[in-house]
Design brief:
Elements lengths: L10 E9 L6 H19 L4 E8 L3 H10 L3 H18 L6 E4 L3 H17 L2 E11 L4 E3 L18 E10 L5 H10 L4 E2 L1 H12 L5 E2 L1 E3 L6 E2 L2 E6 L1 H6 L1 H5 L6 H7 L4 E5 L3 H15 L7 E5 L2 E2 L16 H12 L3 H15 L6 E2 L2 H31 L2 E2 L9 H17 L3 H22 L1 H6 L3 H22 L4 H11 L22 E2 L12 H15 L1 H7 L13 H5 L3 E11 L7 E6 L6 E5 L7 H4 L3 E5 L5 E3 L2 E3 L2 E2 L1 E3 L3 E4 L11 E2 L1
Parallel strand pairs: 1-2, 1-12, 2-3, 7-13, 12-13, 14-15
Antiparallel strand pairs: 4-5, 4-6, 6-8, 9-11, 10-11, 16-17, 18-19, 18-21, 18-27, 19-20, 21-24, 22-23, 25-26
Helix pairs in contact: 2-3, 5-6, 6-10, 11-12, 11-13, 12-13, 13-15, 13-17, 14-15, 14-17, 15-17, 17-18, 19-20
The structure holds ligand ME8.
Ligand ME8 binds next to β1, α1, α7 and β12.
Length: 663
């Protein structure tokens, strides 16, 4: 086999190959989106990447559904694979290779691996008397069963099998697998998964049954057509097929070992973390660099989201919901779902998926923070420098340093697969950008005739948005492209490369093209009201709670003089926090144009999240007598519409300076 190559090794990234008995769901989409982001990142860094996903077709459960459908297994799988390809395309997943276990090339490699291990004695024939879980396609030991002979993973009843079968001598590799994992901390990640695998290994690996009676679908055992290869043994070999094992030595040298194999935590301990390394050791092959097992998406009630629980989340429906509620394009909605999945939960941990959470982040992070910075900056460039971003030195606001610091943080996060940390770092930069606009007040610089400074400030802002777009491109490719388009960068033929994250490398004389807002705001108050109305039909109690309060008959008239006593002012919420010991109150820090911001306690917590309020402009009753509420001194009141539970904030319909009088 060719072993030396001067060419840089290709970064080989895999997802599991998915059972095609059903369409993609949130779990399969999560792994594949994450892998896609990583592949995009490394491609942007100039690396040669091979990102692979595919379909696992020889499972018994796939065959069962195929039979029910009236199609043969092959025709059924062909149809399902089309659905997967369509779904991945829609989710902006740019894989390099989609492998199917029914392809000839793969079947050939499975036969060759099986024959090799039979010859070396690592596979032998014996009788299998034991348990099998069809939905999980897993052979189980008696001591692993749950109560009432149920599967420890899916809790469904298992069946017994008694058959002549072939066994893989996994027990012979137990200690070596353990040694590898112990000596290479990066082999199994995150740490919690590594511990799970090590504790699974401490019980010692048992020899694994790797065949079953031939159902007329699958890869036949070489020399024994009465049996086919066990679906997991078959499936894991896909990673070798793609690398050209036994077919193309040059390709194998270029690709092996895989740099990153991603999967959900359920298929780590028994399969990817133990059986797979044992198979590779038996074949004399190097183990992957990193196997990463991410967490599960759970429902609001804390159950794993899965088909068997009937609580599946369809990513397509989530994309449609974002389009419907916001009016953004489908491409932007797809990117918003990708963003939500990677921002909401630390990669590796479990998290709860909720449509409200997705729409909330669309508003607060994408429309408010990212969209706001872009939508404020472009009109300023149009207004003050005729729409052309002039080359200039740094604006002196410290933004260039923050850009550099953010890029370094982002790189460290990518290396650690910390998507959430990476996005948080970018969001801190966006917040700094928004603050920079407020502090450097380009409108004042214009009024004061400080054109050099004004040009520099606008350049700094556009440059910061440009770098943020590069950093976000792996997660939100369409959004990043749209931002570049609006900055006038695409016209210059500039490709997004990571090395251009350097602050100050925005090419001179870009002409901005302000388009429609990329993230139209969702009317959350209306959404809540609709939800409340839907709830009304269900319970009388909910109905009562959501009714607007009756108008008080006793409200009398006030004179104009009395009205004039009210000091209403525009305020900007700088910070918000819950008031301890109550579900209703929030403590807001509000800038009302005075030397110091005020603290205002407001009964908004039932209707608004802290995140939603930060950065929002509000109307404050500034001359309300201070009052101490739950130990916090409140200096004013924030106006909101609605009854006991507020429905909507009263906000100015365009940006105003904090402290502006409201009449
Ligand atoms: O396991 N949250 O295929 P599969 C997060 N064919 N991830 C989830 C999830 C959830 N609620 N539910 C499922 C197979 N997943 C095999 C792989 S590879 C050689 C063979 C993840 O279609 C789950 O952890 O059942 C796994 O990574 C994938 O979705 C399920 O894929």
């Amino acid at each position: 086999m060719a072993t030396s190559s001067l060419k840089q090794k290709t970064r080989y990234i895999t997802t599991p190959i998915y059972y095609v008995n059903a369409s993609p769901h949130i779990g399969t989409t999560y792994t594949t989106v994450a892998a896609d982001c990583i592949a995009r990142y490394w491609r942007m860094r100039g690396e040669d990447v091979l990102f692979v996903t595919g379909s696992d077709e020889h499972a018994q459960k796939v065959m069962q559904v195929a039979e029910e459908s009236g199609l043969g297994p092959q025709a059924f799988c062909d149809q399902m694979v089309e659905a997967y390809l369509g779904a991945w395309e829609r989710m902006h997943i740019g894989y390099d290779r989609f492998i199917r276990t029914s392809e000839d090339e793969h079947r050939q490699v499975v036969s060759a691996v099986f024959a090799k291990l039979l010859e070396s004695g690592d596979i032998y024939k014996d009788t299998y008397e034991g348990w099998y879980c069809v939905p999980c396609e897993t052979y189980l030991r008696e001591d692993e069963l749950g109560e009432g002979n149920t599967c420890p993973d899916c809790a469904r009843e298992v069946s017994t099998l008694g058959q002549e079968a072939y066994f893989f001598r996994a027990s012979a590799y137990s200690n070596e697998v353990m040694r590898e994992i112990e000596s290479r901390p990066e082999l199994i990640a995150p740490e919690s998964r590594r511990n799970e695998v090590l504790s699974f290994l401490r019980q010692g690996l048992q020899d694994t049954c790797v065949s079953r009676a031939n159902p007329g679908w699958g890869v036949e055992i070489p020399g024994d057509p009465s049996q086919t290869v066990y679906v997991w043994f078959d499936a894991l070999i896909n990673y070798l097929t793609v690398a050209g094992y036994g077919l193309d030595d040059g390709k194998m040298a270029q690709l092996w070992p895989p740099d990153l194999q991603l999967m959900g935590k359920d298929i780590m301990p028994r399969f990817h973390g133990t059986l797979w390394p044992a198979m590779l050791l038996a074949l004399g092959l190097e183990l992957p660099r990193t196997l990463f097992g991410h967490g599960w998406w759970m429902s609001a009630t804390g159950d794993k989201i899965s088909k068997s629980k009937g609580n599946v989340v369809d990513p397509n429906a989530e994309v449609d919901l974002v389009v419907e509620e916001s009016g953004c394009t489908t491409d932007v909605a797809v990117d918003a779902v990708r963003y939500y999945m990677l921002r909401e939960v630390t990669f590796g941990l479990d998290g709860a998926f909720s449509s409200e959470g997705l729409l909330g982040r669309f508003n607060s992070d994408l429309a408010n923070d990212l969209g706001n910075l872009l939508n404020r900056t472009l009109p300023l460039i149009e207004r003050y420098v005729d729409g052309t971003i002039k080359a200039a030195g740094p604006g002196g606001g410290g933004l260039a340093e923050q850009v550099e610091d953010t890029v370094q943080r982002a790189e460290a996060c990518w290396a650690a697969l910390d998507f959430r940390g990476m996005l948080e770092a970018v969001w801190e930069l966006l917040a700094a950008g928004n603050k920079f606009v407020d502090e450097r007040a380009p409108w004042d610089l214009h009024k004061q005739g400080k054109h050099v400074e004004l040009t520099a400030v606008l350049y700094d802002l556009a440059d910061t948005i440009r770098v943020a777009a590069i950093m976000l491109a792996p997660v939100m490719p369409s959004v990043a492209e749209e931002i570049w388009q609006q900055l006038g960068l695409t016209e210059n033929g500039t490709q997004m490369r990571w090395e251009d994250c350097e602050a100050g490398s925005l090419p001179p004389d870009c002409v901005v093209h302000r388009g429609q807002p990329i993230f139209p705001r969702i009317d959350m108050a209306q959404l809540r009201q609709r939800a409340a109305e839907n709830g009304e039909a269900e319970t009388a109690e909910a109905s009562e709670a959501s009714k607007p309060e009756k108008k008080s008959e006793g409200i009398g008239m006030i004179s104009f003089d009395e009205f004039q006593k009210l000091d209403l002012r525009v305020g900007k919420v700088l910070d918000a926090d819950r008031v301890e010991g109550t579900d209703k109150l929030l403590q807001l820090t509000v800038d009302v144009g005075e030397d110091e911001p005020r603290t205002v306690v407001a009964g908004l917590a039932e209707a608004f999240s802290v995140r939603e309020l930060i950065g929002e402009q509000v109307v404050v009753v500034a001359n309300l007598e201070p009052a101490t509420i739950r130990g916090v001194q409140s200096q004013g009141m924030v106006l909101a519409a609605g009854g006991k539970v507020p429905q909507a904030l009263i906000i100015p319909d365009r940006d105003c300076e904090p402290g502006e009088k409201v009449r």
